[in-house]
Amino acid sequence: MKIYLKENVYEKALERISYLYDEFEDVVVGYSGGKDSTVLVHLALEVARKKGRLPVNVMWIDQEAEWQSTVDMCIKIMTMPEVKPYWYQMPMVITNNASLISRYNYCWDEKEKDKWIHPKHKLSIKENIYGTDRFHQLFEKILKVDFKDKKACYISGVRTEESPKRHMTLTEAITYKWITWGKKLSKDQYTFYPIYDWSYNDIWKAIHDNGWQYNTLYDKMHQYGIPVREMRVSNVHHETSIQSLKLIQEIEPETWERIANRISGANTVKKLGDDSFTSIKKVPFMFRDWEEYTLYLNEKLVDKEKNRAEILKRIKKMEKIYIHDKARDMMYKAFVKTILSSDWDFTKLDNFEANPEVYNYRKWVKKKPLLEQDIKFYLRNNLIPSYEKEEVIKEYEKIKKYIIVDGFHRYYICKLKKDIRERNKGLLPIVVINKDINDRMASTIRHNRARGEHNIGGMSNMVFNMLDNGWTDQEICKELGMEIDELIRLKHITGFSKLFENTEYRKAWETNKMIRIRHQFNKKKKEVKIDENGQ
Fold it and tell me: Rounded to whole angstroms, how far apart are CA atoms 327 and 320?
């Protein structure tokens, strides 16, 4: 259970980072060119200035296959006078999820120098002396070598909003003293996540309010209608961002040419688009169902016995949880994507399980308390079989609530005017709007346009929210009675961050367990002080 604190997330993040600067000899900020790490760099700069700890150590492990917009943003950060750059452009191996044949991409391979997607920078570290060429292992190894024999920590912009699994990981177990939001790397060296409780609204509000420069790729993706949660600005052939290959040619044609020439399978994914192996939607006609298709692929395509066995092991475990037909199909579809993209880190499968809606389904199966949005999701997607629907609908009716919109004057008049109150027998007249949020926003815009009282900024914000809620450009134009050119202009009128200017920072939070751990730590610390004084 979350307990909201008196401080907002911005204030609390500064407090957490300040504590880390007090505890550790070296603090290293991880950077990727994305929104979260951009905010984290500026928060660290704010703390370091107050404590006289400039310059701030900033680390970027450059994976070569990067958007040019991301490279440009990283150059801006790495060349700031208050930053000490740790920019790594060195040989490393990264999974290539664009190809079924070429499993890995060998970044910064000197033999392929003429094909590098962007050149090495004079500031960068170019020699790999860290004992591994595997990307995920480099973070720990770099701290061990470049901050040898130092009490050091790496801070990253991971947020629990993106995954229930992250929520559990960062709130359950002690990492350092009373802190749960991190992990131990080696003796006296840790990774921490001080903005774990931020939402993406908080991130963009901080960027807008402070006028911080951010990756312009977000503006371009917004203009192309990419939902906020699907915007990826880092390595383009990683399993979580491979859909970017469909956009690069339009947004950054020069970058696309270099990627197509360098990354095996990139051109295939781009040309096939939604029909590529990364976007399979229907079971091929020769297979009975997703289960049969999965088992066939596992037997015929997976060449390593270790990976085949792991697939079967996970299937056996997950079949006990995903017990309804539709849910089981979703599960097997995730396995198919895992196999076809050779994702033996199992990121796609982990992301499937971390999806909030899938997490909510598991809550239903385990008979845990449900929220209204959980139940709506089950019913909308037919996840619950007909013989259980009656029970679900009863649960829905039990917790269903209304939100009062624009009721102040009506309530005020009925409360103050005795004759009206008596005529209505003490009841307040209401109109129930039986529409989802997108339909309600569309109604508001149509109403205001009819009265001639709409404004461009407000419409742009509403259109953004409708896109983020899953409506297509065509659906928005149809509902609002506007031409596609007008919609495109609305997307272009402002930078992406400006859409968040009227939001408020959320309150920071901790779980009951986190608070209990901190109190226990403080209590033990007081007892130790008493013993040392002999009292």
Answer: 11
